[in-house]
Amino acid sequence: MRVNTRFLIPLLVVLLGVSCSPAPEVDPAPEGAAPATAEADPIPCYLTSDPIEIDGRPDEPAWQQAPEIPLRFDGVGNPVSPARASARFLWDGEELFVAMTAKDRDVGSTLKGRDARLWEEDVLELFIKPLESSLLYYEFEFSASNQIFDAYFVKRGAPLDEATAWDSQLRVAVSVDGTLNYPEDDDRGWSLELALPLADLHHAGNSIPKQGEVWKAAVCRYDYDARWEQPLNTATAPVTESGGFHSYEVYGPLLFKGPPPAPSQP
Ligand SMILES: [Ca+2]
Ligand SMILES: [Ca+2]
Ligand SMILES: [Ca+2]
User: Fold this and answer.
1) Amino acid 242: pLDDT
2) Ligand 1 center to residue 160 CA distance, Å?
3) Could you report the per-residue pLDDT of 62-73, keeping only the tens digit for each?
4) Ligand 1 centre and the CA of 65: distance in Å?
5) Residues 135-148: tens digit of each pLDDT
6) Which whole number is the average pLDDT over 106-111?
7) Distance between CA atoms of 201 and 86, rounded to whole angstroms?
8) Burial of 57: CB neighbours in 10 Å, binned 0-12, 13-18, 19+
9) How many angstroms does the Cα of residue 78 sit away from the middle of ligand 3?
10) pTM (predicted TM-score)
């Protein structure tokens, strides 16, 4: 039986203790900052008709309407403040758009090919669970060299090779602010934009949500650094506290909304 070691990594980190490796640099919490609670952020997903060029740089005006969702939980569910990565969500009725931005001192990515083991290097991940009434969910991973891993799980623990056999039609582009695969200098980070056709998520019927519909979603990350012995994993939800990135019970509610409110008049 094939064992998916990804489920074991958070547990091993807890059992072995993170103190066995040099502590990754995490910005200290500012004085007076409110402590994070062990609840995932709700994720507003506003409807937009504005153009978004999928080029890895989420600098279109449309993105200014999308609230930033911080990856504010570390590998054992403790708060990371301020967060070093965030995600934003939009949709246009046919496609889901997601922008992710990550600070990263050492951006690395060498793996190639669809569904490669991208979590073994710097990676940003998106988990989507459309239906409360079904066990099915989707996982997407993106590397800093623009490689894609996409998987459809009929249920948690389903064989990985069966899950990854599914390929979506999503479009993604990555932008690296620094030098890829060159740990000798200090990078600043990387970002990506993706457009996922919602019709791709058809396994439980009509997958085009209505306005007001609520799914569940989480964005997660492994940040590797040549100067650390262990990667730092963070997420928008306290997933690793309760058994791994696949703990969809604690994902945030993804709210498919109408257009964003008009800016107030000066
Ligand atoms: Ca763009
Ligand atoms: Ca796939
Ligand atoms: Ca890194």
Assistant:
1) 58
2) 32
3) 999 999 999 999
4) 14
5) 999 999 999 999 99
6) 98
7) 24
8) middle
9) 20
10) 0.86
